[in-house]
Amino acid sequence: MSISNPPHNSDEAKNIPEEMAGRRNLKTEASPEKADKASEISGTPILEVRDLCHRYPHLESNALDKINLKIFKGERVAVLGANGAGKSTLFKHLNGILRPLSGEVLVKGEKVTKKNVRMCREAVGIVFQDPDDQVLAPSVEEDIAFGPINMGLSREEVENRVKEALEMVGLTGFEERAPHHLSGGQKKLVAIAGILAMRPEVIVLDEPTAGLDPLSSARILELILKMNRELGITMLLSTHDVDVVPYFAERVFVLHHGRLEADGSPGDIFNDPELLRKAHLRLPRVAEVFEMLQQEGVNVSIQITAETARDEILRVIGSGQKTAGIE
Ligand SMILES: Nc1ncnc2c1ncn2[C@@H]1O[C@H](COP(=O)(O)OP(=O)(O)OP(=O)(O)O)[C@@H](O)[C@H]1O
Ligand SMILES: [Mg+2]
Q1: Which pTM does this prediction carry?
Q2: Which ligand is nearest to the CA of 89?
Q3: Atom of ligand 1 nearest to the CA of 81
C-alpha cells in the first residue's frame, strides 16, 4: 500500500450480502469491462489531484494539505475519513466548486480553470452530502431536467434523459412529486438522477449512505454498482462507514486532518490497524470477529466481507473436522 501504488481491481466488491442488498440478489457475473481496465489504468487518469492545498478564510491550518491522487476510468474508489478529515473539501475541488490555495486538479488530463469549468462539470458530476443543497426545483421532473436544459439539449433529448434517469434510480412515477415532500432516501435518489441525466463520465458522491436506513443504504450502493457496471461510469464516494467500503470499493484513499494517509485495496487498508487507529477509524464488524478469534488463538486470517468470512469459517471448520478424524 502506498500513495504511488497502481489501482487494484479486486473482486471484493462483487457481491453485496443479502442484508446489505435489501434481500435482492446482486450477484453479478464478472464485469465485462475488467479486461479493458488493465490497459486504461496505465493511460491518462480521468481525475488527478496534484499537490492540492486548501485553506478556508480566517483559519490557520490547511483543510487539505498536499493531496496527490489519480483515479482511472471505470474505477470504484472510496475516500475514507473521520468527520472533518477533508472529504467534502476535496470533492468540491474536483469540478471547480472550490479553488485550490495551491496545486491543481486535472480532469481527463486538462487542468480545471475558469475557462473549462463547464466541460469539467459535465464530465464530473457531484452528488452533495446534503440533498437539500442540490434538489431545489418545485417538481422532481423539473429538478432532473435542470442540468440537461443548461447543457443546451433539445426538449426531446431532455425528456428522454429525465425518463432514463428516473428509471435507473427506480423513481418512475415520481415526476410530478414535490422534492420537499420526499423522504431523505428518495431525495438522494433524485439528486443522483439529476447528475445521471447529464451523463457524466465520473460521479462523485459525498457520503451517499449517511442518514439512511439499512435498506435505503443498500439500494444506493446497489445503484452505484449498477451505474459503474452497466454505464461504465467511474465512481468515487466518500464515507466514514467502514462497513460499506468492502462492498463498494476496489481502491480506498484514507484521509486524515487534510492529508492523504494511504491508497490501497480494502484488503490492504483493513490489514493496517495502526493506520485505522491514526485516522480515527475501525475495522469492519466482520473483521472484528476474526480479530477476536485470532486473539483466542484460532488460526484464521482477517476477512472483511460476509462472503469471504463464510469461506474462511468453513475452511477452519473443515480442517478441525479432519484433525478430529471426521470426514
Ligand atoms: N466553509 C467552511 N469554512 C471554514 N471551515 C470549513 C468550511 N467547510 C469545512 N471547514 C473545515 O474544514 C475541515 C474539513 O471539513 P470537511 O467538511 O471537508 O470534512 P469532511 O471530511 O467532509 O467531514 P464530515 O464527515 O463531517 O462531512 C474541517 O475542519 C471543517 O471544520
Ligand atoms: Mg463532508
Answers
A1: 0.86
A2: 1
A3: 21
Q: What is the pLDDT along the chain (327 residues), one digit of tens a residue?
A: 443 333 334 443 444 544 444 333 323 333 444 445 544 556 899 999 999 999 999 999 999 999 999 999 999 999 999 999 999 999 999 989 999 999 999 999 999 999 999 999 999 999 999 999 999 999 999 999 999 999 999 999 999 999 999 999 999 999 999 999 999 899 999 999 999 999 999 999 999 999 899 888 999 999 999 999 999 999 999 999 999 999 899 999 999 999 999 999 999 999 998 999 999 999 999 999 999 999 999 999 999 999 999 999 999 988 777 666 665
**Which ligand lies nearest to the CA atom of residue 92 in the structure?**
1
- 3-state SS record for 5-16: CCCCCCCCCCCC
Q: Is CATH 3.40.50.300 the right assignment for the domain spanning 34-132+200-282? A: yes
- Residue 133: Cβ-neighbour burial (10 angstroms; 0-12, 13-18, 19+): exposed
Query: How far is Cα 121 from Cα 8, in angstroms, rounded to an integer?
Result: 27
Dihedral of the CA atoms 151, 36, 165, 190 (nearest 10)?
-90
Edge-to-edge order in the sheet of strand 64-71: 64-71, 47-54, 102-107, 110-111
Query: Could you state, in order of their start, the residue ranges of all structural domains in the chain?
Result: 34-132+200-282, 283-327
By alpha-carbon position, which residue is closest to atom 1 of ligand 1?
Answer: 56
Cα 326 to middle of ligand 2, angstroms: 53
> Which residue, among 184, 250, 246, 207, has the nearest Cα to 5 in the 3D structure?
250
Tell how far the Cα of 133 is from the centroid of ligand 2, in angstroms: 13
Query: For residue 303, which of 316, 315, 288 has the smallest C-alpha distance?
Result: 288
Ligand 2 (ion): residues with CB under 5 Å are 87-88, 129
Classify the C-alpha dihedral 221-157-162-106 as positive or negative. positive
Residues in contact with ligand 1 (CB, 6 Å cut-off): 56, 59, 63, 81, 83-89, 129, 240
Indicate which residue's Cα is closest to atom 17 of ligand 1. 88
